[in-house]
Write a structure and sequence with these properties.
Length: 369
């Protein structure tokens, strides 16, 4: 079928809306008419050519919409169902069997390379094949082809156009606090970075009843938003030459938990100095490629002496069929206002959305086909 998609023709090239051909759903696949798709930092990393995906490509991995068709064997959803789309997983490896699909043995193959698990591509135009199936969806388009495992039903009352944001960035931030690190009641926490992931972590920390919630973020509007969402303190790093000292001025013994969403080497290297004994450092931020060791030998010595736990986190350790419905239920109860992070743009203005996110003029752009 003919669809309209935001195509990236070369690394760092702008997104261009084009007509492309999308395959019909095969066995186990679901065709979704996209109503909204979140813009995530991972989309931009991929569009810069930093993931193993061949251009031209269609990105987008926080889609939501209405099921139009299903392939053979699909029983989870039917045409007409409202769904959010999340990351792809195989469903049968040891990690999937343990309900930890974010660590699926086929994670890279199913999400990063722009093709189905069997190696085929689902998109093309008159010039040849286009890499699709990004995170099992490629939802910067009017329609996306996904799989039964990728979709989660969206109940009435949850705005469908923004529900897809729960499929990656927001579940990553909230899940880091609620699942990966399981922050305990009255815990002290510092969140490094106040973007969509960091602010979702703040909301997760409120739900976990953390006692001290510190956000480190240079953008004043995001600091204010963090405080309104439940952070107890906000630090402007541009005004604090010593980050550890600024955090310890609030939590003299250090913090029980730290979550880095920034990927900034200088920030990451400071973390051991602000942790309390037996503290946990969770990280979702990806440092730049040139940042090789991040002072790791010294950091390991500090980790041993402090009894620290260092925890890499993917997708907030989410089991999407469990955690995304939980977040939607909390939203409907007024306890997880993720909609406050969102600003919507027409899909045709995707490049403006990218620019405004980089400028800090919005937190979580959502593109409306």
């Amino acid at each position: 079928m003919k669809i309209t998609a935001a195509v990236t023709r070369a690394p760092c090239a702008p997104f261009v809306l084009e007509e492309v051909e999308l395959d019909p759903p095969g066995a186990g696949e679901v065709l979704v008419r996209i109503v909204g798709a979140g813009l995530c930092h991972t989309d931009l990393v991929a569009a810069e050519g930093l993931l193993p995906i061949t251009m031209p490509a269609v990105f987008g991995h926080e889609g939501a919409g209405v099921v139009e068709r299903v392939g053979a064997g699909v029983t989870k959803v039917k045409p007409g169902d409202n769904v959010a789309i999340t990351f792809a997983s195989c469903g049968h490896c040891p990690q999937c069997d343990r309900h930890a699909p974010a660590y699926c043995h086929a994670m890279a193959a199913l999400n990063f390379v722009g093709q189905r698990g069997d190696g085929s591509r689902s998109m093309r135009d008159g010039k040849g094949e286009i890499s699709g199936n990004f995170f099992g969806q490629s939802s910067f388009a009017t329609h996306a082809l996904t799989t039964e495992r990728n979709v989660v039903k969206v109940p009435d009352g949850v705005p469908l156009e923004i529900a897809g944001t729960l499929g990656c960035g927001i579940q990553t931030g909230a899940g880091a606090i609620m699942r990966s690190m399981a922050c305990h009641e009255n815990a002290s926490l510092v969140v490094l970075g106040g973007g969509a992931v960091g602010l979702s972590a703040v909301m997760g920390a409120v739900l976990q009843k953390c006692g001290t919630i510190i956000v480190v973020e240079p953008n004043a509007n995001r600091r204010d938003l963090a405080l309104s969402l439940g952070a107890t303190h906000a630090i402007d790093p541009s005004q604090s030459a010593d980050l550890a000292a600024a955090v310890r001025a609030i939590a003299p013994h250090g913090v029980d938990f730290a979550l880095d969403t920034s990927g900034i080497p200088a920030v990451i290297e400071a973390v051991p100095k602000l942790l309390a004994p037996r503290g946990t450092f969770g990280f979702v931020g990806v440092p730049p490629a040139h940042a090789t060791n991040l002072g790791l030998p010294g950091t390991l010595r500090e980790a041993m002496r402090g009894g620290f736990t260092y925890r890499g986190i993917i997708e907030g350790d989410s089991d999407p069929d469990v955690f995304i419905p939980q977040l939607m239920s909390l939203y409907l109860a007024g306890r997880f206002p993720f909609d406050r992070l969102v600003k919507t743009y027409p899909l045709a203005e995707i490049n403006r959305a990218v620019a405004e996110q980089k400028q800090g003029l919005c937190v979580k752009p959502v593109l409306l086909p």
